[in-house]
Design brief:
The structure is a homodimer of 207-residue chains.
Chain A: E1 8-13, H1 17-28, E2 33-39, H2 42-52, E3 56-60, H3 68-78, E4 83-88, H4 93-101, E5 106-109, H5 114-125, E6 130-131, H6 133-142, H7 149-157, H8 164-171, H9 175-189, H10 194-203
Parallel strand pairs in A: 1-2, 1-3, 3-4, 4-5, 5-6
The structure holds a DNA duplex (30 and 30 nucleotides).
Chain lengths: 207, 207
DNA sequence: GCCGCCCCATGACGTTTGTCATGAGCAGTG
DNA sequence: CACTGCTCATGACAAACGTCATGGGGCGGC
């Protein structure tokens, strides 16, 4: 019935000061949680984690420097005892998959309440996983990426509307090859041209 | 030296429960502020505002139903005494312009601290304006849209990668005309093709 | 060892775009 | 009224793009 003598140490990483601060304040209301560090960017999150060795790292997906998943990957290597979880505004199916592959144990949208987040932090700390049901359903319905490695790479290079010549140069491929990859990628995705292909692939988290 | 007997009544609208709740908690720490209503969508924000008649409405830019600027526009008509301000994660220059045109008196990114936000709420309530300096600078450097009405319209229709034929049909224009508009829009923007034009126009808030 | 799949390339073909010239109708402005 | 700028259109040409057939090299599975 008594509170555990060892509070659960949390790292909070989010580039939006407003949210980070507010979150820290709300989590502080939970007796068994203590926010030991805050960070506003990917690299900073990593540094703070190494310095403060938290039990759980709560990472925003989109941060300057390195995104949450990248931070989680590094953390896993350098601080294996630290559980990681991702909080995000716009959860795309592919992100979830990448996150789980990176050893992330929790994946929740920012639409949850703070109380609920606190519960999930405890769940994660206990060694269990938690994935938002809605996001999980999306991920399942979106399915696996049908794209090969090169197809995805070329598609990504095409994302900003660059012409084939530029893509070819940046990928060190011939223009013909690039067009073949773009063509096959688009047909796999079911898009009429590469631009809609890029958009759809993005929506499904395949790039 | 005593606190004003009439606390400043605030409406909070943000679709992310986590943030909204956390923000409400932080603002509650300010003695002269009281959050009288919360909303998770545009329409709900409007309804709550009419029901609770707050002094200041703090609106997220991106919400389901109607975005912050639309809510501000409606609010201005239906509740002229209520000051409005926008809080946003990704501030694009064009949004700021639209917001100011809608009578919004405050425009801040979510990177500010809660204390700072509280100050700005007071500033706005006092009848003054506050615009984040960084966003203001961006807006100025981005300048006015050089696009004509049709150019912008056609560009928007091209946003999802649709072929010219489809754009022409949807805009009830001939294909040649569409290509002319796209061409002139792209050259005005300084893009090599319409897809990068769309991207750049989006970044500058012109579409 | 054969088969399938991915990787990379080339050449060829038809289609889609981007660009330019040109012109008509129709505002708003000086 | 002349002028300017937006709107809409057409035709024509070059460049970019999408698609297909074809082929060689590599790598893992049956």
């Amino acid at each position: 019935m008594t509170t555990a003598p060892q509070p659960l140490r949390v790292l909070l990483a989010d580039d939006e000061h407003l949210i980070r601060g507010a979150l820290a304040a709300l989590l502080a209301l939970e007796e068994d949680l203590v926010v030991v560090a805050e960070a506003a960017s990917g690299p900073e999150a990593l540094a703070m984690a190494l310095a403060h060795r938290p039990d759980v790292a709560v990472l925003d997906l989109q941060m300057p420097g390195a995104d949450g998943v990248k931070v989680a990957t590094s953390l896993r290597a350098e601080l294996p005892d630290c559980r990681t979880m991702i909080v995000t505004s716009h959860g795309r199916p592919g992100h979830l998959k990448r996150a789980l592959a990176a050893g992330v144990r929790g994946f929740v949208p920012k639409t949850v309440s703070a109380r609920r987040l606190a519960e999930i932090i405890r769940t994660v700390h206990a060694g269990n996983r938690y994935v938002d049901p809605e996001l999980a359903a999306d991920a399942i319905s979106a399915g696996d990426s049908p794209l090969t490695a090169r197809e995805a790479e070329v598609l990504e290079l095409a994302a900003d509307g660059a012409p084939v010549a530029e893509i070819a140069e940046r990928a060190s491929l011939s223009q013909g090859t690039v067009r073949n990859y773009l063509s096959s990628a688009a047909s796999k995705i079911g898009a009429e041209n590469r631009h809609t292909a890029v958009r759809l692939a993005r929506e499904r988290g395949w790039v």
